[in-house]
Q: What sequence folds into this?
């Protein structure tokens, strides 16, 4: 199976023009380019484990930095970091 040729691209562009209109096409192309760029940077950076610092917000037991679960309550490192982030966000004063 080969890539679309010139005639196929023209048909695709005409369909996009009919669906989205001439004013939306540049915005659509820009957002698709940004999405591709974010995807590539995500692949390059990879997944990074969130750092664990301090006690577990659920059970207050100290969690070792390299641990994937809390030794006290069994919550995952991701749950612990998410809860700490949520608590920090609630503690920040909301600006109007």
A:
């Amino acid at each position: 199976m080969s890539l679309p040729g010139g005639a196929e691209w023209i048909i695709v562009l005409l369909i996009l023009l009919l669906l989205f209109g001439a004013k939306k096409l540049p915005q659509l192309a820009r957002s698709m380019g940004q999405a591709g760029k974010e995807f590539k940077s995500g692949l390059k950076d990879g997944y990074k484990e969130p750092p664990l610092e301090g006690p577990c917000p659920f059970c207050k037991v100290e969690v070792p930095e390299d641990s994937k679960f809390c030794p006290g309550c069994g919550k995952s490192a991701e749950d612990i970091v998410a809860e700490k982030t949520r608590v920090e966000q609630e503690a920040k004063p909301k600006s109007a």
About this structure: The chain has a mean pLDDT of 85. The chain has two domains: 6-45, 49-96. The CA atoms of residues 52 and 65 lie 5 Å apart.
